[in-house]
Amino acid sequence: MRKRIKPWQVCLPLAVLATVVLALHLIPALCLRTPMPTVGHKTFDVIITLGYPARADGQPSAMLKQRVVAAVKLFQAQRAQHMLFTGGAAHNRYVEAAVMAALAHSLGVPSEKIIQEPQAKNTCQNAAQSVALMQQRHWHSAIIVTSPNHLKRASYLFAHYPIDFAVSSSGYPVEMPRWERVLFDQWEQYALTRLTFSGYPSCP
Length: 204
Known about the structure:
Layout: H1 7-31, E1 46-50, H2 62-76, E2 83-86, H3 96-106, E3 114-117, H4 123-136, E4 141-146, H5 151-158, E5 164-169, H6 178-198
Parallel strand pairs: 1-2, 1-4, 2-3, 4-5
């Protein structure tokens, strides 16, 4: 005879999961204060696009393409005179910055307007190494382009550097499934919760 599952055996794990998810959203919202400046009508020195993994065959993934297309639109609208793509081979053998730069060039951005930062393996390093390249060129302002749920973490990290910046959402690819957006959102909430408790991380 099969043993009946009692209602509490189903409800308790669901209640624990719901509590964890709620905490991941509430803790950063209440405790992690960070500026989220928008582009408005200003112009900037450079547009910084944060990396995302390419596909396994080296072609731009849907999310990577979405970020690059959004950044190129800002460039074409003359919101900045240069583009900086940041991201190393963090998740496969393809350097994210190189894949993004090639895509931007194919969309009409002159190669002399493109800078690559090919070493960063995470968002913290994206910020640190991008700002270092800005300082080498005596640039003081930037638009940071990334995906919607990544904006707050990116803003928090860039706010620790002496630059004037704004954040701009790339939106999500239309073909991105709803469940994938939910997973992406939960990962970002987890990352923000870690930042809330650990403070600004050391970026080698």
